[in-house]
Amino acid sequence: MAFTGTPQALWEPRFLAAFGLLALATMLILAGVVVVATRPLRQLAEAAERLGADLNAPPMPAAGAREARATAQAFNRMQDRLRDFVAGRTRLLAAISHDLRTPLTRARIRAEAMEPPAERAALLADLARLEAMLATALAFARGDVAREPRRLLDLAVLLGDVAEERAEIDEPVTYAGPERGAVVSGAPSALRRALENLVSNAVVHGGAARLGLVPAGAAWRVTVEDDGPGLPAAELERVFEPFHRGDAARSLEGGGTGLGLAIVRDVAAAHGGRIWLENREAGGLRAVLLLPAGDAPPLGPPDRSR
């Protein structure tokens, strides 16, 4: 059958309007299909973010198509297995810690009666360090930061308090930044512990600690700088590994438990933030801690290209 229309008819307003409406309807339908199809992926990504910050986060809802439900159920089973694994290791460490407290207490009692005083003091210091290592390791394994209630707090006030307390005992710690107004949602004790760990590293191995605070978009940027030797590039990331005992890690941790920076990273992650180390051009090391401001959403993954 021959085509009887004229090419000019294709350019008539009525035809163009009908074609435009058809194209718009098609685009809206396709957009709806894409949204529905990608919703399970978004839910999976959100559940993974929650799991990364807290093993006790709510499970992923099992809804939608059969494949989406199967994915959600598999993710929830994985979360349960991870929770059971961590709980088992925590119980094991708690049992070891409990069993070691009795001989440590006996050793402390005997050490207090030792002579000469110099040897007594040295042994008591070693015992105190062992007890601190046990307490730190147990707190790290339990993930105490996830258990502490969150509230709005002023990061500027917290940094000022940390610097003032260190200055009172004649440590070279200073703070430059706003006096107040840096509101974040967090666990006060956990954040203070993370800052104390960073300051201690800077003072012991860098000679001083200079604390800074500036806004960074929807986050607050905390810096802790020192004048020490810095670290090789290969160690800037590895020192965050628990019990990492390379030469550079020993230098940074000062013979501590090997968990100081691992705890700082856990605290940062639990607050939706990030932490990294970088060598300063003028010499020394800079620790950078990013925390979401107020009730802002968690920060994205770190930039590994840095």
Automatic annotation (TrEMBL):
Instruction: List where the protein spans the membrane.
Output: 15-37
Q: Looking at the keywords, is Cell membrane present? A: yes
State where it is primarily located. membrane
Sorted alphabetically, the keyword list is: ATP-binding, Cell inner membrane, Cell membrane, Kinase, Membrane, Nucleotide-binding, Phosphoprotein, Transferase, Transmembrane, Transmembrane helix, Two-component regulatory system
According to the UniProt entry, what is the EC number of this protein? 2.7.13.3
Q: Where in the cell is it found?
A: Cell inner membrane
What topology does the record note for this protein and the membrane? Multi-pass membrane protein
Instruction: Give the reactions, separated by semicolons, that this protein catalyses.
Output: ATP + protein L-histidine = ADP + protein N-phospho-L-histidine
Q: Which residues form the HAMP domain?
A: 38-87
What is the top-level taxon of the source organism?
Bacteria
> What residue stretches are annotated with the Histidine kinase domain?
95-295
InterPro entries named among the record's database cross-references: 2C_sensor_his_kinase, HAMP_dom, HATPase_C_sf, HATPase_dom, His_kinase_dom, HisK_dim/P_dom, HisK_dim/P_sf, Sig_transdc_His_kin-like_C
SMART domains per the record? HAMP, HATPase_c, HisKA
The enzyme's first-digit EC class, named in words, is transferase
Q: Which CDD domains match?
A: HAMP (cd06225), HATPase (cd00075), HisKA (cd00082)
Question: SUPFAM superfamilies recorded for this chain?
Answer: ATPase domain of HSP90 chaperone/DNA topoisomerase II/histidine kinase, Homodimeric domain of signal transducing histidine kinase
Per its record, how is this protein called by name? histidine kinase
- The organism of origin for this protein: Falsiroseomonas selenitidurans
